[in-house]
TrEMBL record:
It holds the Pfam family Ldh_1_C. Its EC number is 1.1.1.37. GO terms for biological process: malate metabolic process; tricarboxylic acid cycle. This is Malate dehydrogenase. The active site is at 165 (proton acceptor). Substrate binds at residues 70, 76, 109, 140. The gene is gb08294. Keywords: NAD, Oxidoreductase, Tricarboxylic acid cycle. Belongs to the LDH/MDH superfamily. MDH type 2 family.
Length: 309
């Protein structure tokens, strides 16, 4: 997708740097061969390496997919300490060798807290340059509304994912609209079923990752890659006028979310910078759900910091 221009635009040549661990080196080389064989006109070069310094040198955009997700029977603390050691090494390499103003997107789970660890170990990278992926959840919410109303997904906009990329996230449709023949209409009005919107809809989006794993016996791949491209494209090239998207970003205390968490907010992007959408009214139910996911992130942060000691 990146080599086809879906992430950075069809007029932007790219050099791909791909990092994996030594046991995966041969497979990584196979991916490199396929990239060369595809003869993508925009692909100016491919670096396939197991050396984190070589991988990070000169990069303008870093998409971090290597991580250690929790496996059955593992304690949360064990998972966190594995991610702390991975992100410590990668953060230091990015800080020392990436291009100035490199934009970082953390995809690997626990995505928000991995991003926070990365920020901790790369103090000279501005915090506004470190983000995590919740665009997949955002796109899932758009998809659910589009299916329910039988409208084209591109006519639905301004859903919000608040909080953690986990099952405590809060998919919020209170500000979402649909383009209709008679103008833009609120999603709540068109769906006209608050019980579904406040119940099954939220649950489906929260649990979608698990549902995909159950069905495929593998986690989401196409939709995750596509939404990572959406995240970077909008960040670099800007969001359309009147549209906001969800990004996990460093909280400045907006909407009463504790500062210092990587929390998913509604944002607009322009000139390569994101900005949290301000002034949206928050109802009682939303407040509770936004606080619950913030609470989970605060607990993850405490756990992560205890692994740093
Ligand atoms: N935020 C999201 O929306 C979202 C969506 C999908 C997947 N994920 C997460 O993204 C991550 C990747 O998912 P996947 O399905 O591609 O997993 P995967 O296991 O297929 O791929 C992960 C790759 O990372 C490599 N890796 C492991 N440790 C590494 C290290 N220290 N340095 C460099 N590379 C390393 C592995 O060898 C493997 O090739 C997982 O943590 C998954 O939970 C997040």
């Amino acid at each position: 997708m990146i080599a086809r221009g879906i992430m950075l635009g069809v007029d932007q040549p790219v050099i791909l740097h791909m990092l994996d661990i030594p046991p995966a080196a041969e497979a990584l080389n196979g991916v490199k061969m396929e990239l060369v064989d595809a003869a993508f006109p925009l692909l100016k070069g491919v670096v396939a390496t197991t050396d984190v310094v070589e991988a990070c040198t000169g990069v303008n955009v870093a998409v971090m997919v290597g991580g250690f997700p929790r496996k059955e029977g593992m304690e949360r603390k064990d998972v966190m300490s594995k991610n702390v050691s991975i992100y410590k090494a990668q953060a230091s390499a990015l800080e020392a060798h990436a291009a100035p103003n490199c934009k970082v997107l953390v995809v690997a789970n626990p995505a928000n807290t991995n991003a926070l660890i990365l920020k901790e170990f790369a103090p000279s990278i501005p915090e506004k340059n470190i983000t995590c992926l919740t665009r997949l959840d955002h796109n899932r919410a758009l998809g659910q509304i589009s299916e329910r109303l039988n409208v084209q997904v591109s006519d639905v906009k301004n859903v919000i994912i608040w909080g953690n990329h986990s099952s405590t996230q809060y998919p919020d449709v209170n500000h979402a609209t649909v383009k209709t023949a008679s103008g833009e209409k609120p999603v709540r009005e068109l769906v006209a079923d608050d019980e579904w919107l406040n119940g099954e809809f939220i649950k489906t989006v929260q649990q979608r990752g698990a549902a995909i794993i159950k069905a495929r016996k593998l986690s989401s791949a196409l939709s995750a890659a596509s939404s990572a491209c959406d995240h970077i494209r909008d960040w670099v090239l800007g969001t359309p006028e009147g549209t906001f998207v969800s990004m996990g970003v460093y909280s400045d205390g907006s909407y009463g979310v504790p500062a210092g968490l990587i929390y998913s907010f509604p944002v607009t992007c322009s000139g390569g910078e994101w900005k949290i959408v301000q002034g949206l009214p928050i109802d009682e139910l939303s407040r509770q759900k936004m606080d619950a996911t913030a609470q989970e992130l605060s607990e993850e942060k405490t756990l992560a910091y205890s692994c740093l000691e």
